[in-house]
Design a protein that fits this description.
Blueprint: H1 3-34, H2 39-50, H3 53-64, H4 68-86, H5 88-91, H6 103-120, E1 125-126, H7 128-151, H8 156-162, H9 174-206, H10 210-222, H11 224-235, H12 242-267, E2 272-273, H13 276-298, H14 305-326
Antiparallel strand pairs: 1-2
Helix pairs in contact: 1-2, 1-9, 1-10, 2-7, 2-8, 3-4, 3-9, 3-12, 4-10, 4-12, 4-13, 4-14, 6-12, 6-13, 7-12, 9-10, 11-12
């Protein structure tokens, strides 16, 4: 397999993955509506976990296929990209507010999640017990959002989950719902396997570890939905609510995706290996980005063009540092 084909396989896999995830969520939400399930239950289960399904499926496939660098790299790289790229670029077109209800609290939780991942991977692996603890944290977080929905329904993260049932484009007929569910269920693992195959081969051809592919191409690809959401919100001058999408994604990446991948690896009799390079560099970039965002949010100042430009430059510097440290060689 050539490098061009390997990269094409990754990109096609990402498209298939995101397309399948969207179909699965919309089909499941429509089915839940037919069963008259409460909006809160739908939002806190189908929508909350469904939005992380692409990353989760990729990370599980990578962990079980002997490519843990892709799994952990996807989590860490996505969290870095969400702060520096997903928030940075849209802020160049419209200020992103940081004073929405619950944003300070959610930013703190996202920061704690980053610290939890670093602690779990400090010894070079995330074992079954640590994976269970991480996944228990996302269950607790979902329960917490459920409590918030009763006391503070204006929290943007809660509002986003509850609006799914009334979103446009939900299928009406039973046949369409069934087709969406079937295609989504098939597309998710299929796209994930394409990504793992292409990522492993691309890393081999470039003379780098699969970690680099996970931190860059895969992380950016799986962050596209968040990027699109924030960018559209910035153009519409509604970016005050967009930051909740990014913070929620970072929390789910660590607790749901990281915990789920470690559980899958543990169930298979192995551990989710964490390369030494994460402790040397990438973990601290993730923690630094999360800390910077948290401190900025504490000021309640919007993320404007200057700050957005600095975030974007920071992401460019991070990618350049990865290229320099890994000495990427084109075949």
């Amino acid at each position: 397999m050539s490098l061009t084909l390997a990269l094409a396989l990754i990109l096609i896999g990402i498209v298939v993955l995101l397309f399948g995830g969207d179909l699965l969520i919309r089909g499941a939400v429509a089915l839940a509506g037919r069963w008259k399930l409460p909006s809160l239950l739908v939002g806190l289960t189908i929508v909350a976990f469904g939005t992380s399904a692409p990353e989760l499926v990729v990370s599980i496939d990578a962990a079980l296929s002997g490519a843990p660098g892709l799994a952990v790299g996807n989590i860490v790289g996505s969290n870095i990209a969400n702060v520096l790229f997903v928030l940075g670029v849209p802020a160049l077109f419209g200020a992103i507010g940081t004073s929405s209800p619950g944003v300070k609290r959610n930013a703190l939780i996202a920061l704690i999640a980053s610290g939890a991942l670093i602690y779990a991977g400090r010894d070079g692996a995330i074992d079954l017990i640590e994976g269970a603890v991480l996944f228990a944290c996302i269950v607790a977080f979902i329960g917490y959002l459920g409590l918030l929905s009763r006391r503070k329904p204006d929290d943007p993260m809660v509002a986003e989950l509850l609006e799914a049932e009334t979103a446009p484009g939900l299928p009406k007929s039973s046949a369409t719902i069934a087709l969406m569910l079937i295609v989504g269920i098939i597309a998710l693992p299929g796209g994930a396997h394409m990504i793992v195959l292409g990522g492993s081969r691309a890393a081999e051809l470039l003379g780098v570890s699969d970690t680099v592919i996970g931190l860059t191409v895969l992380a950016l690809g799986t962050s596209l939905p968040e990027f699109a959401t924030v960018l559209v919100a910035a153009f519409r001058r509604q970016a005050d609510l967009a930051i909740g999408n990014v913070l929620g994604s970072n929390v789910f990446n660590v607790f749901a995706v990281g915990g789920g991948a470690a559980l899958a690896a543990g169930a298979a009799g192995t551990e989710l290996t964490v390369a030494a390079s994460f402790m040397d560099f990438d973990f601290w970039v993730m923690l630094g980005a999360s800390t910077l965002l948290f401190l900025w949010i504490l000021t309640s100042r919007p993320i404007g063009r200057v700050m957005g430009g600095l975030l974007f430059l920071g992401y460019g510097a991070y990618i350049a540092a990865l290229a320099y440290m890994n000495q990427i060689q084109l075949p």
